[in-house]
Amino acid sequence: MMKKLDIYMTKNFLKYFSYSLFSFLGIFVLSQVFKVLRYVNEGQLSPGQIPLFIGNLLPGIIINVAPLAVLLGGLISINIMASNLEIISLKTSGIRFARLVRGPIFMSFLISLIVFYLNDRVYPGSVVRNRELRGKEDVEEREVPKEKENAFFRNVEGRYVYYMKKINRETGIMDHVEVLDMSENFDKIERMITAKKGRYDFKRKLWVFEDAHIYYPDTDTVEARAFIQEQKYMDEPEYFISLSNIVPKQQTIAELKKAIKEGSATGNEIREILSELGKRYSFPFASFVVSFLGLALGSHYVRGMSILNIVISILLGYAYYLVEGAFEALGMNGYLNPFLSGWIPNLLFLAAGLYFMRRAEY
After folding, report:
1. pLDDT single digits (tens) 102-148
2. Which of 240, 265, 291 is the endpoint of a domain?
3. How many C-beta atoms lie closer than 10 Å to residue 184's C-beta?
4. What is the pTM of this model?
5. Structural contact between residues 101 and 9, judged by C-beta atoms closer than 8 angstroms
6. Domain span at residue 341?
7. Could you tell me which residues come within 8 angstroms of residue 212 by beta carbon, excluding any fewer than 6 positions away?
8. Where are the membrane-spanning stretches (predicted)?
């Protein structure tokens, strides 16, 4: 019996989830029509490219409306059962509400996994393709700068850090260099090298520091040298300069992680990238989180609930987006960890959902 009940509940949920998803898709696609027509008038798109451009918009729209569709699908499917007295009958027979909605909750988790895949594998490519259709240059194709001022690079494996006033990656020349040799835990300076110039020997693959001084903090002594050339300092000049102006939305999770690693090593600002990485992991599971709210709030029958369902789902959905935006801003401004700030809205709405699930038992 329970297996048939799970199938029945799941089919109802998927039915109204699909209706909601396609309804929201239609609304959001229509909202983009005027923007597309403006691109055509400005010469950024040709009429023949319109279907492809709109097709590339779909992954992003699906990702954004999936939580709303899950919320509304859960509200409608459970409320219809409640209006037919099915929910109260099943509760009276001794079946807990949490057991009744196990199938829809499991399906919402699968929906979250699908959204996760779209968000990582499909959406970044669709953004890039639409930029190309509009004739916009992709950031990844821009030339890496030849020079960088106030550069920084950390070699974790070698346990040393470079600081320099300027570096040219083509000539391999550094000006006013500091190299800090760190302890194994990176909590103590064991040796500090200062030099007026650093020159990369492309044949021997190592740095040669000219007019250098070595300071030993433990003994508080300084040693002057005309040249310092040690095999450990073999980091190529290209490592010191990287593109810091990548567009995070155009990157996959793997590319975001790579950008964070390179940015941390070269001293580039990575808060925006960290925030985007956190959203890539957290936002897809908003569909799973809000399913608890939708199913619980739809469990009590109220006359005229059909219109109220839509209002509730839209209000709760936009409440989630507002909370998410607020915590994202806190993360970007340094008040919270930008990666973890994406998960706080999920935890808050999950707590609210579990609370209403408990209330739905009675």
Report:
1. 999 999 999 999 999 999 999 999 999 998 998 765 444 456 678 88
2. 240
3. 8
4. 0.74
5. yes
6. 2-137+274-359
7. 193, 194, 195, 196, 224, 225, 226, 227, 228
8. 16-37, 57-80, 100-118, 281-298, 305-323, 335-357
- Asked if the structure places residue 94 within a domain, the reply is yes
Q: Is the CB of residue 280 less than 8 Å from the CB of residue 256?
A: yes
- Please report whether residue 253 resides in a domain: no
Mean pLDDT, residues 232-258 taken together: 84
21 and 86 share one domain: yes
How far is the C-alpha of 95 from the C-alpha of 103, rounded, in Å? 14
Question: If you search the block for the tokens 């899950």, which residue do you land on?
Answer: 70
Q: Are strands 189-201 and 147-155 parallel, antiparallel or unpaired?
A: unpaired
Q: Name 116's Cβ contacts closer than 8 Å, sequence gap at least 6.
A: 280, 281, 284, 285
HEC sequence for the chain = CHHHHHHHHHHHHHHHHHHHHHHHHHHHHHHHHHHHHHHHHCCCCCHHHHHHHHHHHHHHHHHHHHHHHHHHHHHHHHHHHHHCCHHHHHHHCCCCHHHHCHHHHHHHHHHHHHHHHHHHHHHHHHHHHHHHHCCCCCHHHCCCCCEEEEEEEEECCCCEEEEEEEEECCCCEEEEEEEEEECCCCCCEEEEEEEEEEEEECCCCEEEEEEEEEEECCCCEEEEEEEECCCCCCCCHHHHCCCCCCCHHHCCHHHHHHHHHHHHHHCCCCHHHHHHHHHHHHHHHHHHHHHHHHHHHCCCCCCCHHHHHHHHHHHHHHHHHHHHHHHHHHHHCCCCCCCHHHCHHHHHHHHHHHHHHHHCCC
Q: Is the pLDDT confidence value at 32 over 50? A: yes
Residue 331 has pLDDT above 80, yes or no: yes
End-to-end CA distance of the chain: 23
Question: How far apart are the C-alpha atoms of 195 and 174, rounded to whole Å?
Answer: 9
What's the whole-number mean pLDDT along residues 61-89?
Answer: 91
Residues 221 and 287 both lie in one domain:
no
- Total Cβ atoms within 10 A of residue 98: 16
pLDDT band at 268 (very low <50, low <70, confident <90, very high): low
Beta carbons of 327 and 343 less than 8 angstroms apart: no
Question: What pLDDT is stored for residue 247 in this prediction?
Answer: 80
Angle in degrees, 0-180, between the axes of helices 344-359 and 286-297, rounded to the nearest 10: 20
The reported pLDDT for the residue numbered 303 is 55
